[in-house]
Amino acid sequence: MHVDIRIRRFNPEKDAKPWWGEYSLDDVNPSDSVLDVLHRVKWSIDGTLALRRSCGLGICGSDAMRINGGNALACKTLVRRLAAAGSDSVKIQVEPMLGLAVLKDLIVDMEPFFDHYRSVLPFFVNDDPLPADGRERLQSPEDRAKFDDTTKCILCAACTTSCPSFWADGRYVGPAAIVQAHRFIFDSRDKATEERLNIMGEQFGVWRCRTIFNCTRACPRDIEVTRAIAEVKVALTTGKV
């Protein structure tokens, strides 16, 4: 296939404002990913292009970006899915995620995102002695099912940076952090439920969500993000998990 790719570029060391780099590639395999296309641009056309990537398998979450107007992982977005039916050419537009400062080209500053992540205590809390037999803390399949969906988060920030509430005020903890809080709030073995719910109930906590569903559509792991947020709101309102 023929690919015309338009990439939003910005180097703070020399650019006064962002600009668009436009590149054309022939003989692109339709099964190639957008990440493959970006690699060809960087390795064969313009070595100054900056982007994050690691595993290339949709697991690390490092190559989240805006592709044709929506957040996605570049490694999971295939060229053929962006082309019109029967077409042997495609136009792709790639931009950094919104709501986070651009460090260079497609690389954004993830520290505010991870600050919100850390704020919800995203770790297991239980100082009770282990069972006398020394085995792990057991949990029923039914209890595990309550938070199974939110264990899938890979912290790519696609949900948070697609959220208008986060764009409006970066102090909002954001969907990803709420997903992480949900994962432990609904874990029957964890002992910090009340503390996390207090965090969720703060000014820039879960109530900043306006139920727009951008987060759910953006999630590359198909997590029901909006549903998880709603369940945290119910837990806050009723005191029950």
Put the structure in a nutshell.
By secondary structure, the protein is α+β, with helices and mostly antiparallel strands. Helix content is about 30%, strand content about 15%.
Task: Give an account of the 3D structure.
This protein is α+β, with helices and mostly antiparallel strands and 241 residues long. The chain folds into two domains: 2-107, Beta-grasp domain (Ubiquitin-like (UB roll)), CATH 3.10.20.30; 110-238, Alpha-helical ferredoxin (Fumarate Reductase Iron-sulfur Protein, Chain B, domain 2, Orthogonal Bundle), CATH 1.10.1060. 29% of the residues lie in helices and 15% in strands. It contains eight helices and seven strands. It has helices at residues 34-45, 111-119, 141-145, 164-168, 175-185, 193-200, 214-218, 225-238, and strands at 2-9, 19-25, 64-67, 70-73, 89-95, 102-104, 107-108. Strands 2-1-5-3-4 form a five-stranded mixed β-sheet, covered by helices on one side. It has a two-stranded antiparallel ribbon with strand order 6-7. The chain is elongated and about 65 Å long. The mean pLDDT is 96.
Feature tags:
241 residues, alpha+beta, Ubiquitin-like (UB roll), Fumarate Reductase Iron-sulfur Protein, Chain B, domain 2, 2 domains, 5-stranded mixed sheet, two-stranded antiparallel sheet, 7 strands, 29% helix, 15% strand
Query: What series of H and E elements makes up the topology?
Result: EEHEEEEEHHHHHHH
CATH topology of the largest domain: Fumarate Reductase Iron-sulfur Protein, Chain B, domain 2
The appropriate CATH architecture of the largest domain is Orthogonal Bundle
Global Rg:
20 Å
Taken together, the total number of domains comes to 2
Strand residue percentage: 5-15%
The CATH top-level class label of the largest domain:
Mainly Alpha
Unreliable runs, pLDDT <50, ≥5 residues?
none
Q: What is the topology, as strand order, of the major beta sheet?
A: 2-1-5-3-4
Total count of helical runs of at least 4 residues: 8
Question: What is the molecular shape?
Answer: elongated
Q: Can you summarize the main beta sheet?
A: 5 strands, mixed
- The first-to-last residue Cα distance is 51 Å
Could you tell me the number of beta strands? 7
Name the helicity range.
25-40%
Q: CATH homologous superfamily of the largest domain - what is it?
A: Alpha-helical ferredoxin
Q: What does the average pLDDT come to?
A: 96
**Class by alpha and beta content:** alpha+beta
